[in-house]
Automatic annotation (TrEMBL), chains A, B:
High-level lineage: Bacteria, Bacillati, Actinomycetota, Actinomycetes, Pseudonocardiales
Origin superkingdom: Bacteria
Pfam families in UniProt: Pyr_redox_2 (PF07992), Pyr_redox_dim (PF02852)
InterPro entries given in the database record: FAD/NAD-bd_sf, FAD/NAD-binding_dom, FAD/NAD-linked_Rdtase_dimer_sf, Mycothione_reductase, Pyr_nuc-diS_OxRdtase, Pyr_nucl-diS_OxRdtase_dimer, Pyr_OxRdtase_I_AS
Protein name as annotated: Mycothione reductase
FAD/NAD(P)-binding domain ranges (all copies): 5-322
Organism: Actinomycetospora endophytica
Amino acid sequence: MPHHDLVIIGSGSGNSILDSRFDDWDVAIVEHGVFGGTCLNVGCIPTKMYVYASDVAQAVREASAYGIDASIDKVRWPDIRDRVFSRIDPISAGGRRYRASESPNVTLYEGHATFTGERELAVAPTDGGAAATLSADRVVIAAGSRPTVPACIAESGVPFHTSDDVMRLDDLPRRMIVVGGGYIAAEFAHVFDALGVDVTVVTRGPALLREQDELVTERFTALARDRFTVHTDAAPTAAEQRPDGTIVLTLAGQGTVEGDALLVATGRAPNGDRMDVAKTGLELTDDGRVPVDEYQRTGVEGIWALGDVSSPYQLKHVANHEARVVQHNLLHPDTPRATSHRFVPSAVFSHPQVAAVGQREQDLRDAGTAYVSKVQAYGDVAFGWAMEDRTGFAKVLASPDGTLLGAHFMGPQASSLIQVLVQAMVFGQKAQEVATGQYWIHPALPELIENALLGLPLDV
Amino acid sequence: MPHHDLVIIGSGSGNSILDSRFDDWDVAIVEHGVFGGTCLNVGCIPTKMYVYASDVAQAVREASAYGIDASIDKVRWPDIRDRVFSRIDPISAGGRRYRASESPNVTLYEGHATFTGERELAVAPTDGGAAATLSADRVVIAAGSRPTVPACIAESGVPFHTSDDVMRLDDLPRRMIVVGGGYIAAEFAHVFDALGVDVTVVTRGPALLREQDELVTERFTALARDRFTVHTDAAPTAAEQRPDGTIVLTLAGQGTVEGDALLVATGRAPNGDRMDVAKTGLELTDDGRVPVDEYQRTGVEGIWALGDVSSPYQLKHVANHEARVVQHNLLHPDTPRATSHRFVPSAVFSHPQVAAVGQREQDLRDAGTAYVSKVQAYGDVAFGWAMEDRTGFAKVLASPDGTLLGAHFMGPQASSLIQVLVQAMVFGQKAQEVATGQYWIHPALPELIENALLGLPLDV
């Protein structure tokens, strides 16, 4: 049985741990799917390439508001798809090649890993054949997550897509049912609608983007209802396909919806449940994560975890941070660093775009925290006028003394604008000093932030 | 002769001085043109509304790069124009009405003011008639600036436009000559080109945007040459109009250029030279500004100045700041505040967009300052991939210890992204702590900043 200094399970964020400082380590990487992880292959990177194409298509559709009559002559779906994957697939292949044959100290196992003991693994090769076993002094579990699919769909025999494959469709369907109400559903609903697909969104919950601040949830859902057919409080109970190919989804108490393609975007589950981690003595958290402490240690000597498989945040920027922490702690076990999950921003690249950092108003209210808030409309600052924006806003939450508690943007450039407030929160700057301590270009969009901060009814 | 507690010359930033704290002051405002100043009527606000419409038109023109074949069916110029001015003109009219008839303590003089003594003025009514004279305990000169026009054009008798009137054209011309190489020329060249006008840019200098960092100047000019007909080192020497209406501009050593409309955008001159300020004992600076100290005082007791007429920055956000300083100093003469011109950002809303703060590389080199720099391409961060951006960049300049010295952006959202670095510079944050001390949403555009900062070859 081969023994390694370090085994990394997963080739996404885990792969980034290895730099030249590990050149004299005997390292194994285990990858059961496409090399490079979710973000590169089926997540952040390709989705945003689609989103941007759809943003452009949407801009064409909305151009008449600015006095520009424009029309879409043709959506070249194969070209969009091939532009994305002709860029991404070679990166994945190059990453694989580098580890498979150009990193002398690294062994790439292509298969699915399950634990057989504390730091012992069996790897069932992806292309079949007998499982290999291996052991290591240290194991990093960076095995990511996977799309979940409700049983009534998974077991129906009806063809369906997830974010893993929907971007590689041969052709655009005429009608698409999107099941789910979170950010993945919101992004793909935008992508396909903007490209001309008739989109129906179906979600069990009462609204879309329920993880956001309540005002974002409410306003985003209202806009989605204007744009798509939206069924809320609608749990799918059955799926069938007619002989003509039409997919029919039955919703509890709400009849049926039809489409030519079905996208399931109901969330992602950490992959720890498929690895027999109990063999190490570990128990998964109630929500299925591999538990770690602040140093990304699992509690079993020599086993670390990071990213979607263990993190409360299924976000690449958090996984990258956790990977850097694990990297340091592998190299410097006597002076370990802790992970920081303070002020983690996130964005939904839908239309409108959404971005958030810190606490939500409902959190503050539920906790009985004293706070003040200001909702500043894009349409009330000069660049928002220019954009003819009528729905976007920035909502800022602060303590009465100006300490920033949360920020929630919905509108153009939300994912860029939020950074100013991430920075302010991290460095402990108060609302009033951020607003008045610097120049804000007139008439640029950050005046939205300036005005939101100035509008807070502080008690100072 | 009426005597006032305060006379404000100009109804732009100067008008914003008056709030309820001045309700028991006898105040006069003198305005010789349209109420509300340059920014509202002929500057920042309307130009950005045109720019955004043109950004949308340009997005349509460039959509095929994303697999979206789109076309512009019609540019409804009258609708674009009327959208802008139906929004702005009522604001200007409302501001005028408020001061003319709804502010009991304010007298609005509509005419051109010239000094007849230290705090004595003659106002020649805009609608003709005899000049009024008035005096005041305090005078605020906030008279702004005006477009300059080279004599060979001004005296030629050939019809020409400036930023004051070009946005109100009856129809789009087929061909437009834009004279000038600064930000106003760059913005209007984009506006009209995107709307379908054949644009020729003529500038005396060797490049466009010469006030920017040398890399921005070089790359922006190269892109402009791809898009417009650009004549550099080309001083106009004569202008004539043919019987068919064609305007012919003769360029020193470079033959002639032709157009159906002529826009002069060669800069703006402070209006102090038209006010006989010498009568107060003041002498204008060599570049024509009313000189002020850090408290916005002119040196003549009781006379302040602010904004374009006196500031080294012809920027509305600076004028607003100076107006707040003057406001405070009028109300609290014994505890005056000083103006801060530290870290003044600015932007050019052309295509690509440009934004800058702090020092330029040529400044640092000329001063012999030790510095390091990093140029980060948009195309090398994930969202830049999505945008298919091939020309944009962020350039960051810092001391070897990480103290930020300057930042220069050229590309999408430049005017938004720069705010992160304005904030960092104002609050004295170093490159390394800004880059690594906070989360940057993956894959949002601020990763451009993160990577620029991480790429600085610091000596720490």
